[in-house]
Batch of 3 targets.
Target 1
Amino acid sequence: MFEHLPNEKWRQFDFPNSNALQKKYMVSNMGRIASFTENFKKDGTLLKGSAIEGYRIIRLKVKDSYTHFLLHRAVAELFLKKPKANEKFIIHLNHNKKDNRAENLKWATQEEVIEHNKSNPRVKAARKKIQQRTAELKKGLKLTLAQVKDIKKMLANPKRKLTYKQMAEKYGVSEMAITRIKRGENWGHVKV
């Protein structure tokens, strides 16, 4: 037996093939799950489950195969108002995938999920990191796209008057950079 949380309500969770299981399962509005055989109050045991991409899952063996369910989905199905036809997703209002309390969950459409994730601190941090990395890469480039096109045009012209060395000096790069542009090793994606 385990201690119940204040204002915690439990409901039995039935999933496909649950009659083939030896145990029964109860899910609480606080995002907890327990198993029991006969009497929930006497022999109920809290389950921890495991995590996949931050979401708590419960994995069970039914006959000869395994099945699993997401805990937040079980809480939503048992404790939230039934969703509309287009509300197939569940969002965590505080963006914490481990907080599976019914009051922290909401049925949502795909568009609502996308909009909700824009305010997710982890998504914001990842976006900022990508922007910083992109800015760092742009700073490291010595040539612009227009300059590379000019160089490629000069290299393609058999009557050009500038040598590789003169082109390198003109654009502030090494002769090897000009050679690599000619071979397509650098800036190979740029077409003239």
Target 2
Amino acid sequence: MPRQFIIEAAMVTLYGELLQPSQSVEYIVPYTSILELYELQSTSDIIMSNLDHDQHVKQQMKQLTSYLEEPLNRKKIEHALQIPWTKSTSIPLCDSIIITVINAVDTEAYGEDFDPIETELLLIAQRLQIPLLTDQYEFIQRIIEGGLPVQVFDIEDFQFALEDNVFSPRP
């Protein structure tokens, strides 16, 4: 069984190490974070500090959205969008990576402390009891300070997160 993480779709395109894991991985992404990819790839705003890196990341975003728009993948995603909290059938990215899209519902459970996508990430992590992977230090701090029942890893600790089973729920 692959190691599972809740993650924003943009993170998969921003960090190359996420596409070369040392073991099988399943990234579970909220559908709204896929929609965010379309905004990010078409914005004139600079996402990365280096212009070459910025163009590369936006190209990666376009490749991912194009792949997800392929008929079979689109059908899997559209099926999940029919009912709240439904997960798509797994979409393989390569031999060791699959993406699963979830139709999460932002219930405003965390009010003004978290934005809608952050809220969805938290709710998915709580609901599925799967660790959250992010690069947003402030987001991690707010999770810790709020005492939220979510296991969270910084993307810089991705290799450790792959190996970590100490806090994983037991059947």
Target 3
Amino acid sequence: MRWNLSIGVAECTTWGIEHVYVVPGNAGTAALYKASNRADTASDDYPGLVVLAKNLQIGLVVVGPDRAVVDGIEGYFRQSGIPCFAPTKEAAELEGSKSFAKDFMRRHNIPTARYENFNDLEAAKRHVLQIGYRVVIKASGLAAGKGVILPSSTYEAVKALEDILVNRVFGAAGSSVVVEECLEGQEISIHTLSDGTHTWSFPPGQDHKRVHDGDRGLNTGGMGVYTPTPFVTPPMMQDIETLILEPTFEGLRLEGRTFVGCLFSGVMLTSSGPKVLEYNTRFGDPETQSMIPLLDETTGLAEVFLACTQGKLDQVSIKTVPAFACNVVVAARGYPQSYSSGETIEIGKSDTDFIIFHAGTRIVDGKVTTAGGRVLAVAAVRDTLQDAVHAAYEGINSVKFHGMHYRKDIARRYVSPLRYRRSCAKPVATYSLLLSPRALPDHPSPP
């Protein structure tokens, strides 16, 4: 988003952007056109950020981190009269508490997996031992995308409960847990913009959560994504709109939690239709890096965000290009557990057209160095998914730092000489997954 907003300054001054300030920023944002990093105010000092915004005469605040959104940073800026693209603290509870989110889905008849919430270890263990289906154990609070455990046995499920509720491996996020049915199917990410009344969804993407190839290893915040998903047809998107998105936004309105911002719905396409896995109340990472590059050059992201804060999303034009994007994350050695930092990053020249998005990077003594688990991501946009995947990996070949790690199979299940006329490994019985890119859904501007 910071990249797109900054590009807007250079290419379309009619959007009214004079400068982009990033808190705290990284080595990538430091190099953007008419953009500046501001690390003098802590990103969790919300009153201080309001003062900074006033001093800089900021006309729009866009919030990225989940913790800030869930803490209710939007309210600080709203009370000061500064437009802020983020939901209220009340609406953000959909992400801040998985227990709340599951109960919300139950109240509003939104399809999801069978579940129970627990804060008592013995009660949770009894439940796991009594039910006759495979489960997923989730820490209810924010855990940086790592609070989900998929046990392969009852023993592992009980151990996961002990680790979360007693050993507090996820800290305060594990004060309660959700024990839910493990769904089978294809997982997709749906990002929907909302101004409280009108909505517009980006093309669906598919993230790769596990750290190693073949979906092995620990869960991460995401190791790579491609957009759009070739197997999601227009009828499937309509089902998601009718069964999930509409009742979600309506339910929020009915509960006095009107949603303004970006709602990220994790959806599993099962043999009995789409079901919600979880909600995030902000843009996803790495999904955003494959969605934003698909916006048509006439679409001003800052204009769209500002329209959302004004209840005018229906008055702006949002267009996407008929192409595919692939985004591959490059992580530090050890991620998602303890990881090294301070490694010098070298980025060489390449004849391939791609975009490098910085994440955990900083500048030390004039050199770009690693400063996080997920260090950067390489994205590419092409007419076909196969070409987008190839270009993204070509871009990674230009990146070098000690201990770098990345998955080598992003989107590979759909990349073949048949150009994606291929059914998925886990077929969704109620849908046909055999289609060409021409059958992908069109994404018009909001009505």
